[in-house]
Design a protein that fits this description.
The complex is a heterodimer.
Chain A (H helix, E strand, L loop, with lengths): L1 H36 L7 H19 L2 H25 L4 H24 L23 H6 L5 H19 L1 H11 L1 H6 L4 H27 L11 H11 L4 H27 L10 H16 L22
Helix pairs in contact in A: 1-6, 1-9, 1-10, 1-11, 2-3, 2-4, 2-9, 2-10, 3-4, 3-9, 6-7, 7-9, 10-11, 10-12, 11-12
Chain B lengths: L1 E11 L5 E11 L3 E5 L6 H8 L7 E6 L2 E3 L4 H6 L2 E4 L11 H6 L11 H21 L2 H23 L3 H4 L6 H21 L4 H15 L14 H14 L4 E5 L7 H16 L3 E6 L3 H6 L2 E6 L2 E7 L5 H9 L17 E11 L5 E11 L3 E5 L6 H9 L6 E6 L2 E2 L5 H6 L2 E4 L3 H5 L6 H6 L9 E2 L5 E2 L1 H14 L16 H14 L4 E5 L7 H16 L3 E6 L2 H7 L2 E6 L2 E6 L6 H8 L6 H5 L1
Parallel strand pairs in B: 3-8, 3-9, 6-7, 7-8, 13-20, 13-21, 16-19, 19-20
Antiparallel strand pairs in B: 1-2, 1-4, 4-5, 9-10, 11-12, 11-14, 14-15, 17-18, 21-22
The chains are: A mainly alpha, B alpha/beta.
Bound molecules: adenosine-5'-diphosphate (ADP) and magnesium ion (MG).
């Protein structure tokens, strides 16, 4: 009897951790999808996430309202992304260089601001996080009740945005044009649509979503901003995007998988507490924490057959020969 | 009355090529106007200027009597100009319907399932979340307001032009602000309301039926034939209600029968009062269909003539600037031993589909075997498999008895195979290398191109001398042997490849589309080279989409369709009509046709 209770509890915690870890990845990867589907490589997601995480805390600190912080995160991410858009869409610069610049800028800027605003080098003081959501009617259902207890509203937002992204991408003119811009911009141009605008909007949207992903880390899951707190999650999101074949549902599932792997060390800690037979796993916790990154490498090496947008990474030149 | 007047159009590309010089062209309403010229004459450039895709440096465009300025195709489409491009502007991964509506997506007349579903789901989400942060009464009220606003917004969004339909412009200054908001909503609604594919498909079917352009709107473009893809392009222009139709080299991808079908369609358009501009570099076509013909040469307009008052000979002379000999001098072949022996070859394409489906061919020394077929029927994969650029699934390849099945390109070259690849810029040359480096490629590890122990070092001096000699012998127009390959014209790039491939004294030469995109002079040169190689005892496998080329050069013609050899014919005993039918996969009714 008690055995069963514990295993149900464990499964619940496992799923909940997965969801928590996956949320920033999925949000950011969905963002990356808007950019890359439109044909612009966005390796700057990491920087946009970091910027969002910072802006969320800063705005919350200034106003005392974490909801304003959430909006600020999306705006800050979008603003940073718009520089990437200007460089790579308007001036047709190298997208990898621009993306790298974004990451370095975000790191430097947030570090500088930590000192300028709070006079600290590592952690900001605590701010009010977003209130946790407790769905009353779910609390009594066995596993689900555990999974959906005390979740950040950003997790629900993630579900909403996933559905919305599917709708926008496949059912609306904007989505059709976005996909066309990434496959073959000259065809879109011939159809009478301004390619630069479509790509611009795609890139800015990617920043907004990555900003939200970052906000989850600072005011959703925790209560403060820490220097470099994204810790490579932007890159993992990029891998989830590729793993998920640049499609909303794929990205969602890949995000869950990577989230699960990301949360594995935490889960093993819990497991080891309940079951001393498994305590030995604690010795390998760092090794286990590495697994997602190995998977990232495998995903990037393209073991899984994925089909990137054809025109990705190539600036659109009207007069290109051919 | 003129439908289109182009006055003094000049266009220089950023690279410095002047593609159009001071061209003045007037197209009458309702006529079929031929635009004739060799490859590189500037035909596509001129028409892209008319379509708004390129902006001219100089000159005026007048459509239906009033001057216009086209900043993008959007403006040209608004003037009812439609264009079918030489390289189709279609997205292979999308369906026919998606490709047709792109840029002009209709809103659905009734709510779509996906739209409703999404709204219901999202409303449910928001109501639940609101319920958590607000007391019950406020939550209910909030939910009610939310639902109401969603419904209202949905209806405003579905209006074609909200600011007008709501009468906002009648409200004075406040109206102005509201109108701005209205136009933002209009833009959003244009982009974020579900596309009404149901209506679009109806309209496409209607257009297809009316014009005899049968098509499946739900098929993916990558899965349909090139001929059908062209149909989609034409339907695209009709969907946009174009009155002035530009077709850029529409026949170059079609079989003779498909060309006839296309001409029937165009005839129908003429009767419906549409104005048609037909670009081509072939003489037969404008003579068959056009009312008037304009000829471009080197970016300049040579002249415009009435069809009634001209002849193919005159047009050819206008096009090339001198008298042209249509026939290549050729003696009968004297084939001897089998050089290339391909047995039951099966090859997959990039998408892992079986594309070469069991081909067996033999080419003898001293003969040219021509492979005729519409592009995309397995020719590319067949050639790549023979020369070692693509893995083969099954079958065998022998060169004069040596088994080279699955051998590396280097091994294949070593047994005496030369290859003029189909895509000269991607596979034939390294554009960023100099001409002499390109000439040495493939043999760079052998004397006299290399020297030293194990021939590890390039012999630069010898490379330069050999290259200079080759350049002189083949009269390749280039500043120096150290010029970059990318600075050469298409014809001279091809000459570099031909010179290199013939310089190795091959036993077998595989020439894939050797004259594609070349002018008459370069084409003549390459044809002569091929014939003299044949007379010297080389076995030649010629793959070409140009039926004329196949017929003049080949000693035997193999017709390929859907990855199989349909038949082998003697060029003296066959007709373009028979070949065309074979190329389209018709086997059965051959007897009647050739009778
Ligand atoms: N985008 C471009 N950039 C530079 N040169 C170009 C471009 N497009 C065409 N050209 C050059 O302009 C000339 C005319 O080309 P084009 O109009 O395509 O000829 P046509 O359609 O008659 O074969 C050619 O010399 C071609 O190389
Ligand atoms: Mg052309």
């Amino acid at each position: 009897m008690q055995e069963a209770d514990i295993s149900i509890l464990l499964i619940g915690i496992l799923l909940k951790t997965t969801l928590q870890m996956a949320t920033p990845l999925i949000l950011t990867a969905l963002g990356g999808m808007y950019s890359e589907k439109s044909g612009v490589v966005n390796i700057g997601l990491e920087g946009m996430m970091l910027m969002g995480a910072f802006a969320a805390v800063w705005a919350t600190f200034l106003t005392g309202n974490p909801w304003i912080g959430l909006v600020a995160a999306a705006l800050a991410g979008g603003l940073l992304a718009s520089t990437h858009a200007i460089v790579s869409v308007k001036f047709k610069g190298n997208q990898i260089v621009s993306g790298t610049g974004i990451i370095l800028f975000a790191l430097g800027f947030t570090t500088l601001m930590l000192d300028a605003v709070w006079g600290v080098a590592g952690d900001t003081p605590e701010v009010t996080p977003l209130p946790k959501v407790q769905l009353p009617f779910l609390a009594d259902i066995p596993i689900i009740g555990i999974v959906f207890s005390q979740l950040s509203p950003i997790i629900y937002l993630m579900f909403v945005l996933s559905i919305l992204s599917w709708f926008v991408m496949y059912k609306t003119p904007f989505g059709l044009r976005l996909r066309a811009a990434g496959e073959d911009p000259s065809t879109l141009d011939t159809a009478g649509v301004n390619v630069e605008w479509v790509r611009f909007i795609g890139v800015v949207l990617s920043g907004c979503l990555a900003g939200l992903g970052g906000a989850y880390l600072s005011i959703g899951f925790t209560t403060r901003f820490r220097k470099g707190m994204t810790g490579g999650r932007g890159f993992v999101s990029l891998a989830a995007l590729i793993f998920g074949n640049w499609a909303p549902l794929g990205v969602f599932l890949a995000g869950l998988l990577f989230g699960f792997l990301n949360g594995l060390p935490n889960i093993i800690q819990v497991l080891a507490q309940y079951n001393s037979d498994l305590a030995f796993l604690m010795n390998y916790i760092d090794l286990i924490a590495m697994i997602p990154f190995i998977l990232v490498v495998i995903a990037l090496a393209g073991i899984r057959k994925s089909r990137p947008p054809k025109g990705i990474g190539v600036p659109y030149e009207k007069e290109a020969a051919g | 009355m003129y439908a289109v007047e182009l006055e003094n159009i000049s266009k220089t590309f950023s690279g410095g090529v002047q593609a159009n010089r001071n061209i003045t062209l007037r197209i009458k309403k309702g006529e079929v106007h031929g635009l004739l010229g060799e490859n590189g004459a500037g035909k596509s450039t001129l028409m892209n200027v008319l379509y708004g895709l390129l902006q001219s440096d100089d000159g005026r465009i007048i459509v239906n009597g009033s001057e216009v300025r086209f900043n993008s195709p959007h403006d040209a489409i608004a003037q009812k100009i439609g264009m079918v491009h030489q390289h189709f502007k279609l997205i292979p991964t999308l369906t026919v319907a998606e490709n047709v509506v792109l840029g002009m997506e209709p809103k659905s007349s009734k709510p779509t399932k996906s739209g409703l579903g999404t709204i219901v789901l999202l409303s449910a989400f928001s109501i639940i979340l609101m319920g958590l942060f607000l007391p019950v009464e406020q939550a209910l009220l909030g939910a009610l307001i939310l639902l109401l606003s969603v419904v209202i917004l949905y209806h405003i969004f579905r209006m074609t032009n909200p600011s007008e339909r709501l009468g906002l412009n009648r409200l004075g200054r406040l109206g102005f602000v509201l109108e701005q908001i209205g136009s933002i909503i209009a833009t959003l609604s244009q982009n974020l309301m579900p596309i009404g594919y149901g209506d679009a498909i109806e309209k496409i079917k209607h257009i297809a039926e009316e014009n005899g352009l049968d098509i499946d709107p739900m098929a993916k473009v990558e899965d349909i034939s090139v001929g059908l893809q062209q149909r989609v392009e034409i339907i695209k222009t009709l969907y946009r209600e174009a009155d002035i139709l530009i077709l850029d080299e529409p026949t170059s991808v079609l079989t003779p029968q498909e060309v006839d079908e296309l001409f029937v369609t165009l005839e129908r358009f003429r009767e419906a009062g549409k104005t048609i501009i037909l670009i081509t570099h072939k003489l037969r076509e404008p003579m068959a269909l056009c009312d008037r013909i304009s000829v471009l040469r080197d970016g300049e307009l040579v002249g415009t003539v009435e069809k009634a008052g001209t002849s193919p000979e005159e047009l050819a002379q206008m096009m090339v600037g001198r008298l042209v000999v249509f026939r290549v001098e050729k003696t009968p072949a004297a084939p001897s031993d089998v050089v290339l022996d391909v047995k039951n070859l099966e090859v997959l394409d990039n998408r892992n589909l079986l594309t070469v489906k069991g081909i067996s061919i033999q080419v003898r020394s001293g003969e040219i075997l021509g492979i005729a077929g519409v592009q995309g029927n397995g020719q590319t994969e067949l050639v790549e498999a023979i020369v070692g650029l693509r893995k083969l699934k099954s079958g065998s390849v022998r060169i004069a008895g040596d088994d080279i099945t699955g051998a590396s390109p280097r091994k294949v070259r070593a047994v005496g195979v030369s290859h003029i690849p189909e895509d000269r810029q991607k596979r034939g040359l390294v554009l960023g290398f100099t001409v002499e480096e390109n000439l040495a490629l493939g043999q760079q590890y052998l004397a006299p191109y290399a020297k030293g122990p194990l021939t590890l070092f390039l012999d630069l001096e010898s490379i330069q001398n050999i290259s200079q000699e080759t350049i002189d012998n083949h009269s390749i127009k280039v500043l120096s042997s150290k010029s970059l390959a990318s600075t050469l014209s298409g014809g001279n790039q091809q000459k570099v490849i031909v010179a290199r491939e013939l310089g190795t004294k091959p036993r077998l030469l595989i020439a894939a589309q050797p004259t594609r995109g070349l002018d008459v002079g370069a084409t003549e040169f390459i044809h002569k080279e091929l014939i003299s190689m044949r007379d010297a005892g080389v076995a030649i496998l010629l793959v070409s989409a140009e039926l004329d080329e196949i017929q003049t050069l080949s000693d035997r013609i193999a017709v390929i369709f859907d990855g199989k050899i349909m038949a082998i014919r003697n060029p003296a005993e066959t007709t373009p009509n028979e070949l065309g039918l074979l190329m389209a996969g018709h086997e059965s009714n051959l007897e009647e046709v050739s009778a």
